[in-house]
Design goal:
By secondary structure, the chain is α/β, with parallel strands linked by helices. Helices cover 32% and strands 28% of the residues. Helix 2 packs parallel to helix 4. The chain starts with a strand and ends with a helix. Bound molecules: adenosine-5'-diphosphate (2 copies).
Length: 225
């Protein structure tokens, strides 16, 4: 688990500034949701934390260490995307194990770890299937499994549920929260959906035009008279 701190974080594309000096402190184990309309800079912010996007100014700290110059693989965080990002030609087991491709674990240790993760996600019976033989929710769980298997210090979720139908979306919100309660891993979850933010967040960060508009618990932000 790790804290994540953003200090004066800036992103420019050419002359256009899309993130205007964001300050945010995320606690160990906290589930923070970044919410705001399309184009307000949520995904860019997340990708900068992941190291998938270069920053134009400011500082990112993970677990107290400045990671500005760290490669994604050295940040010990895992990203879960909306488009699953799983491999169609590989089995569920191999897709999950792919998260360990750099690890020094032995083959049997990897297998054990994959089975452990599959068990937590209710995928134990599906390990030898290919993604084409899975439901949308099962595929999303495989993507989460791939991220989980390395036991990262933090999870970054980039609108992971927006391709799912309404019923499945509700179910996956509950599953992700249950997993968070079980693992306690610091999580940053991006969505444009206020209901999703309200039902999932320990703390909500409302963004507009590359800035933070408001920060608070769901109760503080939405249930005031
Ligand atoms: P959100 O995730 O809130 O929908 P994004 O972070 O994806 O917003 O985008 C923020 C702004 O940055 C948008 O105006 C978008 O058009 C712009 N943007 C994103 N990526 C690029 C890029 N590679 N080049 C130029 N502008 C970009
Ligand atoms: P290489 O060029 O050697 O593949 P990269 O810097 O391109 O190295 O990144 C690959 C590594 O970055 C992966 O091992 C993985 O740990 C990390 N990585 C890349 N994308 C993600 C992601 N979406 N979520 C978590 N880690 C990622």
């Amino acid at each position: 688990m790790a804290t994540i701190e953003l200090n004066g974080l800036i992103k420019r594309y050419g002359q256009t500034t899309v993130v205007h000096g964001i300050d945010l402190s995320i606690q160990d184990g906290e589930f923070v949701v970044l919410v705001g309309p399309s184009g307000c800079g949520k995904s860019t912010t997340l990708r900068m934390i992941a190291g998938l996007e270069e920053i134009s100014g400011g500082e990112i700290r993970i677990g107290g260490r400045v990671v500005n110059d760290f490669q994604p693989k050295d940040r010990n965080i895992a990203m879960v995307f909306q488009n699953y990002a799983i491999y169609p030609h590989m089995t569920v087991a191999d897709n999950i194990a792919f998260g360990l491709y750099r690890s020094k674990l032995s083959k049997s240790q990897k297998r054990q770890r994959v089975e452990q993760v599959a068990e937590m996600l209710g995928l134990s019976q599906l390990l030898e299937r290919r993604p084409s033989a899975l439901s949308g929710g099962q595929r999303q769980r495989v993507a989460i499994g791939r991220a989980m298997v390395r036991d990262p210090a933090a999870f970054l979720f980039d609108e992971p549920l927006s391709n799912l139908d309404a019923q499945l979306r509700t179910q996956m919100r509950i599953e992700i929260k249950r997993l968070h309660h079980r693992l306690g891993t610091t999580s940053v979850f991006v969505t444009h959906d206020q209901v999703e933010a309200m039902t999932m967040a320990d703390r909500i960060v409302v963004m507009r035009d590359g800035r933070i508009l408001q920060v608070g618990t769901p109760l503080e932000l939405y249930e005031k008279p």
